[in-house]
Amino acid sequence: MSTPLLEIRNATKIYGGGFLQSGEKVVALQDFSMTIPDKPAVITTIAGESGSGKTTLASTILGFIGLTSGQILYKGKDIANLKGTDLLGYRRQVQAVFQDPYEVYNPFYRVKHIYDMVVSHLNLASSKAEARELIEQSLHVVGLRGEEVLEKYPHQLSGGQRQRIMVARAYMMKPSLIVADEPVSAVDASLRAMILDVMIRLRDEAGISFLYITHDLSTAYQIGDNIYVLYQGGIAERGRTVNVIENPKHPYVQMLINSVPVPDPKVKWTTQLEGVADESLRATVGGGCRFYSRCPSRMDRCAKTRPPLYEIQDADQQAACYLYEK
Amino acid sequence: MTTQRNGVLFHSDPAKKEVVLDVRNLRIHYETPRGSVIAVNGISFKVYRGEIVGLVGESGCGKTTAAMGILQLVQSPGRILGGEIRINDKNLLDLSEQQLRERRWRDLALIPQGAMNSLNPVMKVREQIADAITTHEGSQPKNKLKQRILDLFGLVGLPARVYDQYPHELSGGMKQRVCIAMAIALSPPLIIADEPTSALDVVVQRVIAQTLLDVKNRLGVSMILIGHDMGLQAQLVNRIIVMYAGNIVEVTPVGPAFEKPLHPYTQLLIASIPSIKERKPLKITEGITHDLRNPPPGCIFQFRCPYVKDVCLKVVPPLLEEEPEHFVACHLYAKEGQEV
User: Tell me, what CATH number does A45's domain have?
Assistant: First the structure.
């Protein structure tokens, strides 16, 4: 097997507990492992609710914050030890698209400025004409035209256009991975499909892998290849997206998928949910299964030790639950 | 169904439609140095007793502004230019600020967007609810008030211990339920809920949605549910009002809204809902909303409409009843020989 594009080994990130260990510790990511293969390009979804650690994961991959323990390997090299040209190369090959297409722009600059910055910083072009050619080509990939947007200011563009401009900017550097943190949650429903479609096309036509971070299981189901469902910093379940959504195994994932409101007035929620009085309960370091307090099928042992990931038979799927112990 | 609570009788009989709220030609503009942004452009609708009406549309279509207009809580530079908001045959726009304050929580209550952040962090939950009650009804014996608050907790599924807690001790879902309890404290006939479940995870969202349904069924109140989550709308509402760029483009019972939407914008909205039951190709649409300061003549949806005709560029389509109880503002449905 060739070296994976990105491999995360036992990543743990603990916030707080800083000065004289007085503060309360929050485990944002616990013992998280993940692999994105080198070829072919895939869309890997990280799904989870607010507080599940998905944005922390994105920030560690992008190098904004360091891990408390564990490793992130890019093409076999630990990103924490990258220096000089290697680091520059990593930053070029791993790009980001963020949640809010309104806040990532500097309102005083025209759209063109974003591209010019990239071209000059990374020496992508030797002449103005070549730069323009490159920019046009990138915009074309996301379905925009240079004359439509380049001379405009950000406030003159719609949310969907802004987000596509960001995707085009990321694409221009010919990255191998784009980390997209909730790229469509601030975009209107009617324009969401357009951005998701760009992601699919970049995967198929340009061979760019995506790490698609979202809380929305419906869009994850529509476009993802593999999925990792996080619960309070740990993997609850992982596998092929289609398998996990259509046939979830972990009690948390089952509860999650049953709760997604069906857009059909004839299909109502069938069961009443038990009140989740202490839904914000957050486990501290160690302890048992983090879903224990809310789990309908909890056992005594779940409170004591955390279940590892168990293989589900006949499916490329794993769930962190003792129900699937062999 | 008849329910009795706090000595007030509520009747809900679907056959006999009693109007609780009648909005007529409401117009709200936001004044800017470069002209007025037309946020709500003369909308009219009714809400009947015991029903939940969904108010949907994309961000910026004016749905929250319309709701704030009904409560007359539009923030400057927003301004209500005209129209009528009738509750109990009284036009709220004619009332003084003092009279309004008296009517507000009693006639219609609001569950605001991000309601959990609207609680006062330094007041215990019991004080905040008691505050709402005593402001409107005058001071009351303490034990009576406590019993009443605990009854409210029972209705929204909160444990009694919340009575003595501060908001920061509660989870997002519980805070949201406190807000619902406050909204029904004075038994208003109408509650406006502005995206009551956004910012909550889907499991908690479902619990809150069920609490809202439960409250509606037990108390017979009417609700306006503002939101853009069509799945949630399908689960909760009886009728849907679709807004686009400050105008109502379609008013329909919930069934046809999903099965047979008439307006091209509603069709687009329904078609773009991602499904969790079926993996299907994405439906792509292009388009940009016009500048709200300068709406084009004719239909407001003309720039994005796939069926645009000459007439759409000139004449504003009226909201007409195409099928029983199903209204649509679109030239596609102009009758034979009808002047358009």
Answer: 3.40.50.300
Q: Which of B116, B111, B112, B130 is nearest to B175 (CA)?
A: B116
Interface of B with A in 38-77 (CB under 8 A): 58-59
Q: Structural domain of residue A167, as residue ranges?
A: 6-324
Alpha-carbon span B298 to B222, nearest angstrom: 34
The answer to whether position A1 is within a domain reads no
Task: Dump strand ranges (E) for A148-283.
Answer: 177-181, 209-214, 226-231, 234-240
In this structure, is residue A208 part of a structural domain? Answer: yes
Q: Which of A181-190, B240-249, B268-277, B305-314 has the lowest mean pLDDT?
A: A181-190
Nearest to B77 by CA among B123, B114, B29: B29
Nearest CB partner across the interface for A218, out of B269, B275, B284: B275
Q: Residues B268-300: pLDDT tens digits? A: 888 888 777 777 777 666 666 677 778 888 999
Tell whether the model's pLDDT for residue B13 goes beyond 50.
no
Number of C-beta neighbours around residue B8 at 10 A? 12
Residues of chain B in contact with residue A165, where contact means CB-CB under 8 angstroms, are none
Superfamily of domain B17-333: P-loop containing nucleotide triphosphate hydrolases (3.40.50.300)
Contact list, A276 vs chain B (CB under 8 Å): 173, 203-204, 207
Which residues, in sequence order, are bridge partners of residue A94?
A177
Q: What sign does the CA torsion over B303, B304, B309, B313 have?
A: negative
Peptide bond into B77 cis (omega under 30): yes
Separation of alpha carbons B172 and B205, rounded Å: 10
Single out the residue of A268, A273, A233 nearest to residue A251, CA to CA: A273
Contacts of B229 in chain A (CB under 8 A): 261
- Ranges of chain A with pLDDT below 50: 275, 277-281, 283-285
CA-only gyration radius of chain A, Å:
21
Q: pTM value?
A: 0.81
